[in-house]
Amino acid sequence: MPSPNPDLPAFDRATLRPVKRALLSVSDKSRLIDQAKALHERGVKLVSTGGTHKAIAGAGIPVKDVSELTNFPEMMDGRVKTLHPMVHGGLLGDRDLASHRDAMHDHGILSIDLLIVNLYPFENAVAQGGSYEMCVENIDIGGPAMIRAAAKNHAHVAVCTDSVDVDAVLADMDANDGQTTGTLRQKLAAKTYARSAAYDAAIANYFAKQVEETPTYRAQGGTLKQELRYGENPHQTAAFYTDGSHRAGVATAEQLQGKALSYNNINDTDAAYELVAEFGSVEAGDKPTVAIIKHANPCGLATADDFITAYKNALACDPVSAFGGIVALNGNLDAATAKEIVKVFTEVVIAPSADEDAVEVFRKKKNLRLLVAGGLPDVTAPSLTQRNVAGGILVQDRDNGYVADADLKVVTKRKPTDAEMADLRMAWKVAKHVKSNAIIYVKDGSTAGIGAGQMSRIDSARIAARKAEDAQAAAGWDAPRTQGCACASDAFFPFADGMLAAAAAGATAIIQPGGSIRDDEVIAAADEAGIAMVFTGMRHFRH
């Protein structure tokens, strides 16, 4: 990430400030007692609020209630306790200004040198599906006000928003005779404002969903999960942040083995897992499905009665591109499939879970990353995606579009057979995850050829056909799997040529959105070629 500013103010390089009094108010009390004890042992006077005060006092550690500072009781179920001049004056007072010192003296305001606050768990309340009333009650008011005040006055006050910050303060005090350095205080202030911004972003986005309006202001926040060696290229800095949504996938997965994930690994793994989730969960009774991704595009997908067969069929679609790819499964990874996967150089494997025997297979490949996500993302759940453009941000709903069987419209004289219709449904799901213009050929539950990201749809059709021919040559088949296949196009065919290219590759049934001004010409050409065609009425562009 960017290097710190070398032209920092003088206090950030040299000024030490003693920590004589600390105010603590935390929702996460997992390390509270140990850290409160450590502060007390260093001669710091403790002041606290509500449940935090009760916990510290209950541990036998001397602590004052904040009401002893304010001479005002906590009220309204804890909504009003720290919003008081005695608190904010102690946080905001500039010890270097005589006027501030005089005001503090005249009004009996005690300086607060350390503030330890972690905010009400609003994000968790939302993620756990809390009621509207519960989520609103978990909006912290006094906490953000205090941490922002302390951060503004970081020339004198250290502010901690999680237990890791407290560890840093204790280490700083031990190294500096009970004092904190200006450098640490500024670092903590920067983190505080970022935390406050992310917290407010979560609240703002929650309310935007409630009122179902496009908000005038759009905020986005995240929590650092991992610093990355670099971005898409070595000259780009990068980091991975979680957004608090807890959507199952690479952000929530546990990495069981392998070297650290890269920027491209994370992006590709997300694409693979979102694709395989389209085919349901084995644990819920759906068939085993394996997706192989390279550069965020599928290079193979198959459904079968077991994972090892599904993997082999997915790999056969494009074994060259699968080298160095990402493999995703929609169920528990078994050892037999793991042994098959390691025959090909693979960057990442992600699944909801994995047998210990499968994990043991991968341990022999120290660089291969194995992730278990605990579940599959709900591909129908509403959420947002965003992309930066020059001077702005594009925000849209995630493409969770689903076409039910009842919405499919056969527009040709010939109807698809049951086998063709099954392959058409699969091809349509895959098309949603392939860069536009996208053409996908599917035969017997396996992708036979994929054409992605071309400026012309007919080029995608031809590339997908060539991929199928390459796969035929690699496998030694008598004919490419496109013979008698189903074909999906993510958007309508503007002319009949793209559809005819698919037919030339061997497609006997085609699924597409429809909606072109030349639909009649395309349908007539399909009828003449004896092709069954189905319209979905929904487009799946992916740019």
Summary tags:
543 residues, alpha/beta, six-stranded mixed beta sheet, single chain, 20% strand
Number of strands: 23
| Cα-atom radius of gyration | 30 Å
Provide the structure class: alpha/beta
For the terminal residues, how far apart are their CA atoms?
A: 27 Å
Biggest sheet features: 6 strands, mixed
- Read across the widest sheet, the strand sequence of neighbours is 10-15-14-13-11-12
Q: What percent of the residues sit in helical stretches (DSSP H or I)?
A: 25-40%
Relative strand content = 15-25%
Overall geometry: elongated
Structural overview:
The protein has about 550 residues and is α/β, with parallel strands linked by helices. The protein contains 20 helices and 23 strands. Strands 10-15-14-13-11-12 form a six-stranded mixed beta sheet, with helices on both faces. Helix 15 packs parallel to helix 16 (about 355-365). The longest helix has 30 residues, at about 180-210.
